[in-house]
Each structure stands twice: as structure tokens, then as C-alpha cells.
Amino acid sequence: MSLTSRQVQTQAQQQVQTLSPQQVLVVKLLELPAVELEDRIHAELLENPALEEGKEDDATDDDFADSHDAESESEENTDYDAMKDYLTEDDIPDYKLQEQNRSRDERAEEIPFSDATSFYETLKEQLSERELTERQRSLAEYLIGSLDDDGLLRKSIDNLSDELAIYGGIDATPQELEEALKIIQDFDPAGLGARNLQECLLIQIRRRAAYEEQQNPLTDIELRIIGECYDDFTRKRWDKVRQKLSIDEDTFKDALCEITKLNPRPGASLGEAIGKNMQQIIPDFLVDTDDDGTIHLSLNNRNTPELRMSRSFTEMLDEHTRNRANQSKESREAMLFLKQKMDAAQGFIDAVKQRQQTLMTTMQAIIDLQRPFFTEGDEQLIRPMILKDVAERTGLDISTVSRVSNSKYVQTNFGIYPLKFFFNDGYTTDDGEELSTREIRRILKECIDSERKEHPYTDAELTDMLKQKGFPIARRTVAKYREQLGLPVARLRRE
To answer: What is the CATH number of the domain that holds 167?
Structure first.
């Protein structure tokens, strides 16, 4: 019996989610903090002569709308309908929010700027220097937004793949995410994007070796210590490490000296280095709390110009429209140019309006969910809150809330905070009380701070202490929170 093979061609329908150019513009503007938005608007003003500074003129807008033919109006309505995922109300408010009373304006003029750029913005700058496809860039940006304050990626690749599929409508394979992660792991400082401390140290050793002019014989030993003997290394079992690797004591000491120069928290060091550059961050939101607990929210738009359609362009387009029947080829080309510029200008104005609306909706939801903090200023009052909570309250997509939260800051009566500060997981005690993981980490730190340094508490002892305080969490969870606090194991805390 002979075996034959044949090729069979089949057809299958696959639903692919695509964004219109207008939606892409809205998404890009959402990601920009206040200062970058100002730069983007000024660039658009220089690039498009149909756009100019000034308050919108209703008559001008009506004239522009009348000049569109039926086909153009149909396209505009389609774009507007495609924006529904980003809208929270049917009518979009005015671009410029009404300014608050004079005293609030004066306070906005005296905003105490932070002296550091955001971690997210800095990594996006490095990302922009790479030649990537739009898909690679989108995946890398999502991974950047998933890094913790130390610059490490605590979430698994599989979980991130599920998040992108569920919340972002992006079907990304683990292999694609691994490739995007390698891009981030090539950023400075070395160690960013590592999934644990061991990988963080290995990345730094390999990066240092790549820049050395001559091969360092200690490099291979350092890689073997961290790669093959990591558990013994963290537990300071030096004899076992030397025995396993068959190296003498002097060589081991030299390698250990080099390893101790590595940075276990590359993200934190990045923040410190940026702070020295004295780069300012301007809060995107202003939140004022009155003595009676009334909270006022406004956008910090003081340096953001109002936008309108160019009156001269509108008049020229209107003139060409009235004389359409007698137009020459040059006149029709001129009319097409005018319409393209006017369409682009109107689209940009609408995108800026939508950005403002989405930001205000998101920030108001955060205030509602974290009202005790905004009225009292006590960080212990921060409640458990995740992106999904804000998304459900606003009707926005989780990916939209993430974009708003990643690089925005809010000025309160109690200081300036990144929006990511207000997001944290929750834990429910036996009596049903819901506490944030930030509160549990605070209590854990208090326990460690009160220990006798000659006899520090082990993770098992800390677990028992937390249980006595009403937090029956697992020992591995205690270890995770301890690592997040940047605190080593007990034997490394001993003095």
C-alpha cells in the first residue's frame, strides 16, 4: 500500500481588530504627559496651517461642516463611531475647561515641580531610538508599563499574553513577548526587564563583559556563581560554592567583590540618576481639597493653547466650494489641499478634546475610589485598587486606563504623586476587612525594623507575626513582599 501526501487549501474567517487613524491619534495623545502634549500641539500648529491658536468659533465650524460633501460627512461619521470605545458621554465637553477661581489659578502658578522624569517616559525614549515595527513597539510599551519600581518584570509572560488578549484585544504569543522583552533588557541601566534578581545579575555581568576590551577570566566564574550556585550564593554558603566550582579562595573573593558591585534594583538607580538631571515634571491634574472635604479636580492646562480652525482656510474653502462648477484643475487641487488640511486640523482638535475628557473621567474615578486619601492625606488610607476597578467605574477599556496612569502626575494638598501610586492589590482579612498590599508591606517593614539585628526574623517568623496581627498570608507571600521592600533574607540582615 503506497502512501501519498497532498496539500489541502482551506479558507477561514478571522476577526482582526484595527484602529482608525483617528483612534491611533487619540491613543498616542493619551500617553503624553502635560509637557509633551504642549510640545506636540506646538509642532502640529507649525505643521498644519489650517490649525491656529484661539477659541473655537461656532460660525466657522458650521461653515466648515457645510463645505463637506456627503461622502466626506459619511467618512467623518464613521470615524466618530469608531471612537466609541474611548467616549464616556455622548457630548464631548469644551477643549478648555473653565478655569477655577483666581486663588486656585495662583496656586497652579506655584506648582512645586518634581525634579525627576518618570521611569516610564525615560524607557519610552530609549524605545523610540530603536528601529521596530509598530507591533513590536506596542508590545514593548506594554511590557515597560508592567515593570515594577525596581525595573523588574514580576508578571509571567503567559499572564501578560492573556492580559493583552483580554484587555487590549491583541493576540500576542509568548515568543513575541519574549522577543520584546529582550529589547527592553538591552536598555540602560543593565538589568532592566529581568524577571528575577538572578536574571538581573546575569544580564549585568554579560553586559559588562561585552564592553570590556579584553576578556576577564573572572567573568565566567561570576556567571557560574550566579547561574549554577545562586541558592548557595544568596545563603552565603561560600564553601559549597567554592567546592562546587572548584575554585580557590582568592579567586572566589575577587569574583564576589565584582558581583557585589552589581545593582539589584536597576529601576531605582535610574530614578536617582534622572533626579540629578533636574528635569521637571509638571502635574497633569490639580486636586484641591477644602476644609469641609469638598474636592475640586481640574486639568493643568495653563500652558496648553486653545485650538481652532483657521478662519482664512475656512473662507478659502468656502469660496472654492461655491465656485465648484467653474473650477480649473489647479483650483480643484487647491480645494483638495484645503480640505485635507482642514480635516487633519479638525481631527487633531477632536483628539485633544477626547484626551482631556478621558483624563478627567479617569482621575475622577481614582478620586472617588481613593477619597479617604484625598481628604486626609494619609497614605495608609490608600485602598486596594487595580486598573479593572477604574475601567469598570468609567466604562473605559483597561488598556486606556493603563495609558492614562502610566506617565501622569497629580498635585494634591499633600504633595505630587504619580497616578500609579494609587494602584495596588488587595487582601481581605478573616473579619472581611479589605486592606491594600501596601498596608501589609508597611506592617511587615515595621516588624523588620523592630527586630534585633544580631537575631533578625526569618520569613517563617515574620509569617507568624503577621498572622498574630490578623494577616494569615503564606510564607512565600511574605518573602515576595520583603523582596519588594528591597530587604534581604534574615542572614544577610544580621549585623
So the answer is: 1.10.10
